Amino acid sequence: MPKGLVVAAVHPGSIAEEMEIEVGDRVLEVNEQELNDIIDFQFGVSEEEFLLLIEKPDGELWELDIEKGSGEFLGLEVETVSTKGLKKCSNNCSFCFVAQMPEGMRPSLYDKDDDYRLSLTQGSFITLSNLSEEEVSRITSLRLTPMYVSVHAWNPEERVKLMKNPRAGKLPEQIRRFADAGIVIHAQIVLIPEHNDGEVLRETVERLAELYPSVQSIAVVPVGLTRYRDKLTPLRGFTGGEASRLLDQADKWQKDYFAKTGRHLVYFSDEFYVLAGREFPESAVYDDFSQLENGVGMARKFITEIESGWDLLPTEVTERNVHLITGAAAEEFFRSWQKRLLERIRGLRIVVHKIENEFFGLSVTAAGLLTARDIAQQLGDLQGEEFLIPRTMLKADEDIFLDDLSVDWLEQQVNGKARIVENNGFAFLENVIGYSLEVESIE
Fold first, then answer.
1. Which of 34, 23, 9, 13 is nearest to 56 (CA)?
2. Three-state secondary structure call for residue 325
3. Spatial separation of the C-alpha atoms in residues 147 and 17, rounded to whole Å
4. Rounded CA gap, 378 and 383, in Å?
């Protein structure tokens, strides 16, 4: 097995670039200590002075004495979290989204990782069910914080039933150990009707909340179900009425916990508000928006960002046609902004395209789960006009959709010019009008 961690990126102007470290080099040791994973690496290079052992692709070894100022960074990224690869998921959850995916998608989407090092460095959710005692001790002794934990149910029997893994029942003991060690925890509950809702949900939320301030957030998201479930446990989604009742309970919890802790602590994903036909809560309810990647507070943050740029918008533009691409869940949201924008800006034409998710099934309504094929088939010929693609639809580091097709491919199929919009309301406005609001406001 190759030793060390391969360099994946070197930041321009960084110490690493100055020392002529390059992509493809292998970091073997820090301070004469062999590297096993990214934790070893990050702890080693956090010092202001350290010794790096680098192996070049041709086998040449470089020993580099590094000195950096307070707050200065080495400026390199590595390819993987461990020399032994990622820790894999050992569960067989009845609601696992990976198990509901067809063939033909990006290969990385089939990886069922469950690695505490990814949780620490990238905010990935982990179940804790594959941790050894040695790893738990490492997390607590080194205070590897924060950790993002998929809880689903506090009750050991219910959690084992959901995840089909006898080790899943150890969660209360593990989380209490983390809390005692001062580890910050962001918890996730994937909620399934008639499985972990009702009293199971109440117990889960209340037991987690008792561990505040270690537990800093509890996100509740609805189960995602695709049409590829023929051989899986029968499950259903939430109705609008059920979502409404859950949000009534959420409001009570939030008021109670805010009075006790100064944080609302329990947050329900945007999808519940859409299902219930309710307005999204004000920004203050989401506190520090700690679970945006879970779709919790994303709509409210987006609205706030749009409002921050609203007064900078022009009242007229040279004739401009632009197409907005979204999923079923956000259709009404964008139609409301379409109406407001058209009322404000003369010369602007906006068309909202709701794309049905034929690939995964119509019950999957999130824009981030749309494929290039579905967009191409439903969009038609745009005759050279621009269309906006949310960044959430694409791979993090590459302009590729879930079905492994590129933005370039989609442009050719629909005869249009794509604008990729970052997950930001201000950037959305800029892409709608076609230029930078900040630059215009200065001029």
1. 23
2. strand
3. 31
4. 15
* Tokens linked to 364: 């999957």
Tell which phi-psi region holds residue 383, choosing left (phi > 0), alpha (psi between -120 and 50) or beta: left
DSSP 8-state symbol, 431: H
For tokens 């959430």, what's the residue?
Answer: 392
pTM metric for this prediction? 0.91
Integer Cα distance of 429 and 437 in angstroms: 8
- Across 38-42, 81-85, 146-150, 429-433, least confident range: 81-85
- Tokens found for residue 422: 């970052």
Average pLDDT over residues 422-430: 94
Cα–Cα dist 405/201, whole Å = 39
| Chain-centroid distance, C-alpha 292 | 7
| Tens digits of residue pLDDT in 360-373 | 999 999 999 999 99
Cis peptide leading into residue 213 (ω within 30°): yes
Scanning the structure block, which residue is given the tokens 């097995």? 1
Angle (CA) 379 384 389, round 5°: 50
Give the three-state DSSP class for 238.
Answer: coil
What is the end-to-end Cα distance of the chain in Å, rounded?
58
Residue type, 380: G
Closest CA to 81 of 45, 47, 37, 142: 37
- Which tokens belong to 244? 């409404």
Residue type, 86: L
Question: 361-394 in b/e burial notation, b at 16+ Cβ within 10 A?
Answer: eeebbbbbbbbbbbbbeebeebeebbbbbbebbb
CB 91 within 8 A of CB 131: no
Distance CA 437, CA 92 (A): 49
Place of tokens 């680098």: 54
Q: Quick one: which of 369, 358, 363, 374 has its CA closest to 392? A: 369
Q: In what helix (H) or strand (E) does residue 27 lie, and over which residues does it extend?
A: strand 26-30
Provide the Cα torsion 281, 284, 285, 289; round to 10°. Answer: 100
Q: Other CB atoms closer than 10 Å to residue 113's CB: what's the count? A: 17
